[in-house]
Amino acid sequence: MSNLLQTLRPRIKSFGESLYLLARNKLSLLALIVMILLILSAIFANVIIPYPQDIADASHIEDKLLPPSAEHWMGTDELGRDIFSRVVYGARVSLRSALGAVGLSLLIGVPLGAIAGSFGGWVDNVIMRLTDVFLSFPPLLLAIAMVAVLGSSLNNAVLAISLSWWPWYTRLIRGQAISVKERKFVQAAETIGTGKLKIIFRHIMPNCISPVIVQASMDIGGVILTVASLSFLGLGAQLPTPEWGLMISMGRTYFPDKWWYCIFPGVAIFITVLCFNLMGDAIREILDPKTRKK
Amino acid sequence: MKKRITAALVLILTFSLLIGSSVSASAAADKKILYHVHNSMPYVTLDPSIEYSNGIMVLQNVYETLTHYDPEKGEVVPMLASSWSSNEDGTVWVFQIRDDVVFHDGSKLTAQQVVNSFERSMDLGQGGAYIWDAVLAENGGSVEATGEYEVTITCGYPCAMDLVTSSAYAAYVMSDSVIDKDVEFFNQGNDGGSGPYTIAQANGDSVVLQAFPDYRGGWNDAQYSFVYIREVSESSARRQMLETGEAQISCEFSSTDLEALEAQTDKVHAIKAETFNNVIMFINTEIEPGSNADFRRALAYAFPYEATVNEVMNGNAVQSVGTVPAGLWGHSDDIFQYHLDMDKAKEYLEKSGIDTNGLKLTVTYMTGDDTYASALQLYQVNLRQLGIDLELKSMEWDQQWAQAQNTDPADRQDMFLFIWWPDYADPVSWFTSLLHSEDEITYNLSYVHDDEMDALIDEAVELTVTDRAAAEADYIAVQDILTDQAYYLNLYDQVHTYIVSNSVEGVAENPAYSYTIDYYQVTSK
Amino acid sequence: MLKYILKRILSSILVLLGVVTITFFIARVIPSNPEVKWAGQRATPEQLEAARIELGLDKSLPEQYVIYLGDLLHGDLGKSLRTHQPVSSELRRYIPATLELVLLAFLLAVLIGIPLGIYSAKKKDRLLDHVSRFFSIGAVSLPTFWVALFLQLIFYKNLSLLPIGGRLSVEATIFETVPDITGLLLLDCLLTGNFSLMADAFRHIILPCVTISLYPIGLVARMTRSALLEILGEDYITAGHSYGLSDGKMLWKYALKNSLGTTATDVALSMGYTLTDTFLVEAIFSWPGIGSYISGAITSLDYPAIIGVTLFGACCYIILNLLADIIIASDPRVRL
Amino acid sequence: MAYFEIKNLHVTHKSYEGIKDVLDIEHLTIERGETYGLVGESGQGKTVLALTILKLLACPPGKIESGEILLEGENLLALSQRQMQQRIRGSKIAMIFQDPMSCLNPVFTVGSIMTDVLQTRRKGLSRKKATQEAVKLLQEVKLADAESILSKYPHQLSGGQRQRVIIALALACGAELLIADEPTRNLDVTIQASILKLLKELQQKRNMTVLFIANNLSLVSAFCDRVGILYNGKIIEENTTSALIAAPQQEYTRVLLDAVKAESRSAEPVEGGEELLRVEHLKKYFDINDDIKHQKHLCLKAVDDVSFTLRKGEVLGIVGESGCGKSTLVNTILNLFEPTDGEVWFEGKPALGAGRKGGSAFKKNVQIVFQDPYWSLNPRWLIKDIVAEPIEVYERLGEADKIRRVKELLTMVGIEEDACYKYPHEFSGGQRQRIAIARSLASQPKLVVLDEPTSSIDVFSQEQILALLKDLKKRFGLTNILISHDLGVVHEMANKIAVMYLGKIVEFGSAEEIFHHPRHPYTKALFDSIPSLATQGMEGLKTLEGQIPSPINPPQGCAFHERCAWACDRCSCETPQQTDLGGGHMVSCLRAEELTELM
Questions:
Q1: pLDDT at D296 over 70
Q2: Which pLDDT score, from 0 to 100, does residue B62 have?
Q3: Chain A partners of B374 at a C-beta cutoff of 8 Å?
Q4: In sequence order, what are the residues at sequence separation of 6 or more whose Cβ sits closer than 8 angstroms to the Cβ of residue D16?
Q5: Dihedral, CA atoms, B131, B136, B142, B144, nearest 10 degrees?
Q6: For residues B21 and D392, which has the higher predicted lDDT (pLDDT)?
Q7: How far is Cα D259 from Cα C100, in angstroms, rounded to an integer?
Q8: The domain at A18-293 falls in which architecture?
């Protein structure tokens, strides 16, 4: 921590302030706006999209693979369904699964990390070895194994991803916990005689959480990408779910003549992930210049 | 430092872009290469007794069988065997072997080597080895050399051995020099065949075949001295390779790639090959609602046959009539054919008295085949009109199969999308494997148990050898029951469309040997 | 130091054992019938029984596990159910291709990523920074399998500048004697001085390599940038300025050296994800590497193969992780 | 024309709250060879000024609105970064930073850092020459075996050594103006003195001009010719040192003065009641084993055989340099650490080993107030929860009663009741310390430990906090243990003193005894080395030479003998025992008797 300029370094207090800091960087601001739009469209998908029935229960084989046009902004797919509708709806699918995966990993990773960091000793050792084991699985293979056992579905893919993802948070939290443990208010609690568990979960964990939140926000993008990859391999979402990765894998057989089929979902992935990553970076720089996946 | 490395890289890059093509320039002149890109690995093993997969597209050109199925004639013709005969009940078969056959290692073919080859397959008991069931010692069969060029095969029970010996699986004849070798030996690119080509290289994803100069058929300049078979899974990639003229033969294109290619008549032409592969939809007849015949009929009427054949398969398929594909004996065009008819479907649904509200059916299909996915999604839409919710489950074959074999019928799928083809030109496998009731589930995945059918099938198998016409009649009778009861749905027979460079002619696929091309017949213009 | 490394290696082995155990048991609960795969789909019950015995499936799970571990010690990963060949020898055939790809990709990552990171750190919040940030973040935001399709279209079909896939041209495979010393084709060609072949190999590796390197490039650039920014905020940098040291020296000598440790770890840890990408991309460029192999193994649940590849991946990760830790440990600041 | 001159310099800092002035200096001149002291607490803009002069201020968020900084008539603010780097920084103006650790690049050896600096300054200086130069410089700053230090990494050096290296670096390029920004801030008092002396010498030798920035007047009084008081970025008062101390004009200046005029007030001795706490032969060793730099299993003797008794109503002040084991001692008594050996009796009952459960009675009775109120309160909790935490543990109280109790406590420490529903960061340091005190009283303890209770809060609050503590002590008949390096505070609060050195209590006794007749050489040295207003100029400042030996392998015999001015051969072999000089005045020095006369 730099002591020289401490007096000058802003300490984030309010939400407004973080917004202000964020707005100073045009790129991040743009990302923020797009991201909000994405989230909104994900929430209100059914209202926005022109052909809601094309999501699941319709097919117009007669007008399959039409190029983009006034009534089909992104053309139609091999069953004549409106790609625009499906891409927009796909935002919901991707975001939901990404949030699910990250949330689940947090659920597993954070408490473990807090316990490992606070207890130290053999508990710490066991937990950290475990994280090593899970980290050293190539995520894809872990996913494959999971899916092979549980059958392929979007939820199982999400589960699989969380399984390969939680160790990152465990590591991060542990690091935090170790430093927070040294903070005086923890010692104070000890002198007061507060119970160990209460100290871990009421004192230490809440004070570790912020960098993890930052990390999580940065990970969303990556997770969306992974979900797409799994679906691309047929290990994730099942038809006719309009999942972007799945759409690309269907569309690539019609590439390049029917370019629109696999371009638009790809672009959608790119923009979404880009925005989340940009935001993640921005948030990290604002809140906590020190946090990094390690 | 960094600078130097980057400089080096740039250098190599430009350098390579400039002279990269020189390799091809130097060689291609004298030796002609036929480049065949395939959508999946060209082989799994190269062991002629074990391979039970794509490998036959290689082995069929390297090894030979006693007999060979001729699709024009619709019967088996001599290959290594010059002639054969059997006793009237078809339990003893005598094959006369050609005396002018030379293996790639230079040794000459004798009856003993035939015996050794067959016994090798039986001993290993892998891949297609089951075809020798009737010959196995425990079933009272045997293979022996009854002369230098005469092989006598004794069967435990009547069996059309002339058809069996034409099989592309487990029936290849190989030189003694490789009899005791293991899989690894073969996968390293060694072979002991007598066919027109020898294996020059085997790299897992690709194989190089080289003309065998002493092949008894002889060689002319138009034929190719090298054949390069390689996996390129992406349809679009294979298409581009044909467009640029890099490759000469490929098939299994996506509908759009096919359209695009067929349009480019200046570069390539299409060759359609009817196959014995047909796609079937099993229905779990052991539990509600699949156990209800009218309900099954409703399902049958709701399937979008035409759309699938024309739109999804883009004409690379024909709707099945009965279960035996056209071109194979046992097929009849008079068998009843279902067509998409939602009114009839509704009608039968009412008849069945099945309550559809909240009714959910699962269908399992093999991951990776987009045409299945499309067809099923269409089906899904139709069924929804009947108030039935169809859930698509893409699975790896093994899981799919394992689930289908679940001991508790309720834990199995409701429907199962399935592709079947005979290992040799005999319809028997559809009936014995898919329709004959069995005590341990293997391929009867509608779980049919129909005594009438069983009786007919057993009879037909007996008759196959002695009175083929009668056998054919029985099979047709079975198919009538099948379609009436809709135990499973016959969806369509595949048509393989090869895209072939205009510089090449003589490409043809033999339906009895799926995906195999007799490169010996292929010549350049 | 030595003691520390030994200790780390020991724990790595422990981790590896964990991986093996988990994969082994996962593989066993996956619903599949290995004996059928071994004996053929239409095999008779007798043949199936024989296969079960040959594969040792008749024994109890713990027994099988012990046996498997025993074999593993002798480097025996069992036989592939599909190809009936020892997995170890098959891996030996496919791994070099993948390694060649990944190593080259990481080389690119370092050559492009680090300078990029440095410059955008130097020009923080100026245009160049925004551009490079956008690029590096964009690079990690692209679905690789998607990029691959485009590169093919552009460089093969439209420009017909580079081959569409594979490791060598047909003619090269058939007529040239391909050297096999290290298995890294480019290197082997260099060693044997066969430059025309090397050029051919190089033209083939460009596209897949570029595709795969996107992710690490972006990552390295980002990490370098943030690491540098962090360090440039430290007191000793200000102090250095006050002694009149030049900015260049500060950046290139002081800051960079300090930042290497963190960057190295991040790159090492990101390896797993890069491997995943490789699996996806190899299929598209029909690159005869571990990716194509695994996808084959997966479609037929050939679990000896799957475990083999998993172990390979785990080893890569563990080794890289070890290296990273050693890099950090060699940093004088660290006193664990 | 003055040598160095600042004319209405105005610096602002832009942040979310808007633009705020950090510096607004109308006029400041320093003549050549002069030592100018700039005094103010942290946050008053001292560092900003230093950085501005060198043009190293981060802009944005900082911004130099207007003004001139003239060095020999040349306006530095007009120069470009490049010119600054080439002509001014290092060669004309050099700076010494407050935190010696963070100011040396940890991944380079001292040698390479120094040669770098030397070579950039003097073009074409060979590495060999540069190294020789470096050695010279290090010797000049009185670093023994300079060669070996060149090959060391910063973290391998002690604080004092680092600070000397930094000074050497500053001198490296022959700067004439030296800006010393609290150069002794993070150093032990005894080291502090020697560093100051060194600076003084160097200044005279090289006849440099020094801008000395400090946060307390006593240092400046000893060191500087003229003093300026910096408050809210403005110089509110300026005068020659003596004059300023004699007649401060501003209120703020007065407070600053009071803060260091400790001797003025002293605690009234209380008649100790019955014994409350007895510590017997308490030991706390820490195991050190280091994976990376494969050292063999070592142990650090943080607390080494400490015994004392504390009676009801007493206030025991524990003094000693940092690392002497004060805090460890307390933490061990408080059961935060497992003691390696020894006994602690509370009200005649064993307080240790009783473990978590049995100990709770003891824990209830013994509470602690920590040094830094910023980290001693959980930032994520509401004040009510923080203060109520002990109540939660020891009493079953309804929400309503709890709140009532909390409010009582808060009013008691002078915090308005509606603080309950606020978070710590909404309060100033002083207020937080009050809240911490409220919490410590919540469980109605008998013994309250005060760990540097005032050292990290502004001078204004310090007074009030001390007053509050005294008051509370009276009201509840509390007994206190007070840890502080600030003798002023100890003087004011404590009526028993324990002087610790390397984990041992070297002297123990009543406050006035020890303050007025210190018997242990270390105690004496400790007191002398602390600059006070009394000592004008550096001469009065006694220094304690040598580094504090590492507690990992303390010297044989008397741990202090290496630095002791009175040491004799006996000291180096014989370990002194505690001897009572009467009136419970214990000293562990072999020559205690004879020294009474000598010192």
A1: no
A2: 96
A3: 78-79
A4: A10, A13, A14, A16, A17, A20, A21
A5: 70
A6: D392
A7: 70
A8: Orthogonal Bundle (1.10)
Q: Is the pLDDT of residue D406 over 80?
A: yes
Residue B481 has pLDDT above 70, yes or no: yes
Mean pLDDT of B211-238: 90
Chain A interface test: which of D364, D375, D383 (most A C-beta within 10 Å): D375
Nearest residue on chain A to D423, alpha-carbon basis: A13
The pLDDT of residue B350: 93
Residues of B in contact with A152 (CB under 8 A): 367, 393-395
More confident residue, C299 or B312: B312
Residue D42, chain A, CB below 8 Å: the answer is yes
Please report which residue ranges of C123-255 form alpha helices under DSSP H.
Answer: 127-141, 144-151, 170-175, 185-192, 195-232, 235-242, 247-249
Question: For D335, which DSSP code?
Answer: T
State residue B145's pLDDT score.
Answer: 94
Beta bridge partners, B490, equal B280
Averaged pLDDT for residues A205-222:
82
* Chain D residues within 8 A of A192 when measuring between CB atoms: 363, 367, 389-390, 393, 439, 443
Interface pTM (ipTM) of the complex?
0.76
Contacts of B255 in chain A (CB under 8 A): 78, 254
Mean pLDDT of D62-84: 83
**Chain C nearest-CA residue for A129:** C15
Helix (H) or strand (E) holding C62: helix C61-73
Which tokens in the block code for residue D335?
């059961």
Give D311's strand partners.
D275
pLDDT band at D537 (very low <50, low <70, confident <90, very high): low
CA distance A98 to B417: 32
CB D168 within 8 A of CB D141: yes
Mutate to test the interface with B, among A79, A232, A243, A252 (most CBs of B within 10 A): A79
- Maximum CA extent, chain B: 85
Q: Which residues of D touch C2 (CB under 8 A)?
A: 294
Nearest to C257 among D51, D107, D166 (CB): D107
Q: Which residues contact A117 (CB under 8 A, 6 or more apart)?
A: A124, A173, A174, A175, A176, A177, A178, A180, A181, A204, A208
pLDDT reported for residue B24 = 44
Q: Do D375 and A189 touch (CB under 8 A)?
A: no
Sheet with strand D209-214: strands edge to edge = D93-96, D177-181, D209-214, D35-39, D226-231, D234-240
B378 CA: distance to closest CA in chain A (Å): 7
Residue A155 touches chain B, beta carbons under 8 Å: no
Residue type at B42 in one-letter notation: P
Rounded to whole angstroms, the Cα distance separating B317 from C42 reads 26
**pLDDT surpasses 70 at B453:** yes
3+ Cβ–Cβ pairs closer than 8 Å linking A and D: yes
Please give the residue of chain A at the shortest CA–CA distance from C143.
A225
- Confirm or reject contact between A197 and chain C (CB < 8 A): no
**What integer pLDDT is reported at residue D356 of this predicted model?**
47
Predicted local confidence at residue D53, as pLDDT:
86
pLDDT at B322: 92
Higher pLDDT, D187 or A66: A66
Q: Does B393 touch chain A (CB under 8 A)?
A: yes
Residues of A in contact with B256 (CB under 8 A): 65, 253-254, 257-258
Nearest to C311 by CA among C26, C94, C17, C7: C17
pLDDT for the residue numbered C129: 84
Q: How far is D267 from chain C (nearest CA, A)?
A: 42
User: What does the alpha-carbon distance between residue D131 and residue B86 come to, in Å, rounded to a whole number?
Assistant: 103
Residues with Cβ within 8 Å of B307's Cβ and at least 6 positions away in sequence, in order, are: A61, B340, B375, B378
Cβ–Cβ contacts within 10 Å for residue A106, how many? 22
